[in-house]
Amino acid sequence: MIRTTLVAAAAASLFAVGACSDTTDDVVQAPAPGAAPATVTEQRAEAVQDAVAPAFGMTRQQLEDADLVSSAYTDLGDVESLVLDANGMLTHVIIELEGAGDRKVSLPVSQVRGIAHDDGKFTDLTTDLGAAQLAALPEWTPPPAR
Fold first, then answer.
1. Is the dihedral of CA 121, 126, 132, 134 positive or negative?
2. What are residue 92's DSSP bridge partners?
3. Mind giving me the DSSP string for 116-128?
């Protein structure tokens, strides 16, 4: 009985350690020229919740889960990550474009705005850029795996 309890406690501890990371790849630090982006601490990522996400009328989780749609609600892609500058300000959203190849691009936040549709049940981002303009944006290189 004691052995079973100890094994269960050890397994639970390992699971908790694996599940509790102090960094997130959903929010990253903008890279220096020629460098790879870096993950940020969860605490720093939470600053997005307090400072930036409300500007789009959504929570950080809604922002991270948002789709990017055209003004006609055509799906253009999905938000993959959020990019912060050295001061913790959101500068870009990383969009995985619709279509073949799962290409990810870096879209400046000045090019997007939050929208609610279906009586507020869904909150997404919209842009005036078309699919071809989005495809011409710089490709995103994610931070190295830790």
1. negative
2. 83, 108
3. EETTTTEEEEE-S
Q: Does the pLDDT of residue 100 top 70, yes or no?
A: yes
> Hey, which residues does 108 pair with through a beta bridge?
92
Reading phi first (left if > 0) and then psi (alpha if -120 to 50, else beta), residue 99 is in left
Q: Compute the radius of gyration of the chain from its Cα atoms.
A: 18
pLDDT value, residue 49: 63
Cα–Cα distance, 60 to 89 (Å, whole number): 13
Phi-psi region of 57 (alpha: psi -120 to 50; beta: other; left: phi over 0): left
> Which helix (H) or strand (E) is 36 found in, with range?
none
In terms of Cβ atoms closer than 10 Å to its own Cβ (0-12, 13-18, 19+), residue 94 is: buried
More confident of the two residues 14 and 68: 68
Task: For CA atoms 109, 117, 81, 52, give the dihedral sign.
Answer: positive
Token duo for residue 87: 């001061």
DSSP summary character for residue 139: B
**Cα–Cα distance for residue pair 9/7, rounded to 1 Å:** 5
| Measured distance between the N- and C-terminal CA atoms of the chain, rounded to whole angstroms | 38
Q: How many residues does the chain have?
A: 146
Quote the pLDDT of residue 61: 82
